[in-house]
User: Fold Lysine--tRNA ligase from Arthrobacter sunyaminii.
Amino acid sequence: MRIRAEKRARLIAGGSEAYPVGVERTHSLKEIREKFGHLQADETSGEVVGVTGRVVFIRNTGKLCFATLQEGNGTRVQAMLSLAVVGEEALADWKALVDLGDHVFIRGEVISSRRGELSVMAQSWSMASKALRPLPVLHAGLNEETRVRQRYVDLMVREEARDMVYKRAAIIRGVRDTLHSHGYVEVETPMLQLIHGGAAARPFETHLNAFDQKMTLRIATELYLKRAVVGGIERVFELGRIFRNEGVDSTHSPEFTTLECYEAYADQYVMADRIKEIILHCADLVGSRQIETEAGTIDLDGEWKWLSVYPGLSEAVGEEITPDTSVETLRGIAEKHAVKVDPKWDAEKLVVELFGEIVEPTLIQPTFVYDYPPSAQPLARPNRNDPRLIEAWDLIIGGMERGTAFSELIDPVIQRERLTAQSLKAAGGDDEAMALDEDFLRALEYGAPPMGGIGLGIDRLVMLFTNTGIRETILFPLLKPEMG
Assistant:
């Protein structure tokens, strides 16, 4: 770094700029490849261009120097500097001042080298931006921790990292396009909230000086989107960041992106069609409907099964479990299957946890897991056929939950009872329980139409299509501070 800093100083002392405001670029490297890719070995184009790129390879030998320039999308073109064309002073400066990682500007004729390499034969060159830190070597200086912590470096040197950015963007576009095609309206709702709700999660807390008021960052977008449906925006969605002050692992991040959408006069079955259409459209945009994983091939064109929670768990453990099964029996099953449980958990919570630990990881093909007990989702309506269950599903693909949906609870009386029970749990020390949101209940009391709703984790959708952990899918994930 000291040597590079000295080169920067020499550039400036010599009257050049190390960081000019701009250069006279005429073509991107991609345009050069497209326009002149037909040149045969040792052929010249007769056309002079101005190009820029980051130097990712350099070979300075005597009277002829070579460099590989790379632009943001990974396109590369060779630059050649010949003593006969560029002159003695410019060539000496190039050798003395240019390092790997520098952005340089080359003006010259587009040619194809003797070996058939598309090149720009420099007539002049200048520095576009002097790099003071050396680029890492792919196999040595770029472990996973460095890649994630210094994503800008990862993007420079690894094509897969750049691909991830474009794939994620395509998936988000696919989600939007599908919903727009069904007449949905995209809205934005508050991230700073007085009352946290819409999910069972522990919030981040902050303070609003203007009101001298404790606030939380949102843990879901649900309650505001439902207010919009009450007001008459009958198909509404939001794609946005959610914040949960909880664990960090290969499938969880403290801040992550969700889609939530709500549709008046729809139910859990309509929303199942919607999420299937979204996922298939995204698959078509980024690759294939067949996804290779360690657990086998996921076939999105195959059957999307429906699996009921109680029968599904019964089959997995070899004994019948129903909404009437006792807490003691369920604890015994947990012990037998080495599933850790909290002594405070009731029968419903035990069933949900046992299903998540024992059955869920085995569901590789798309499966709608449904007929949950009521406490699993306090915002879902009672099942139309069995009031001991609710109308909600989780979509499991590749052994992991990718999204969830409900036939939404719109009865303000039952909703008040459910939220009151939640607030009592919170008062009893449950960090994840929802608060009682009087304004949300007031909105429901004005009359919400029957509706279905989806919650879809965008990061987990990207994980599905890229076969990576959550830290890879988020461009700049939250990490522990560096010690130093």
Summary: The chain has two domains: 2-135, 156-304+365-473. The longest strand covers residues 44-61. The chain has a mean pLDDT of 93.
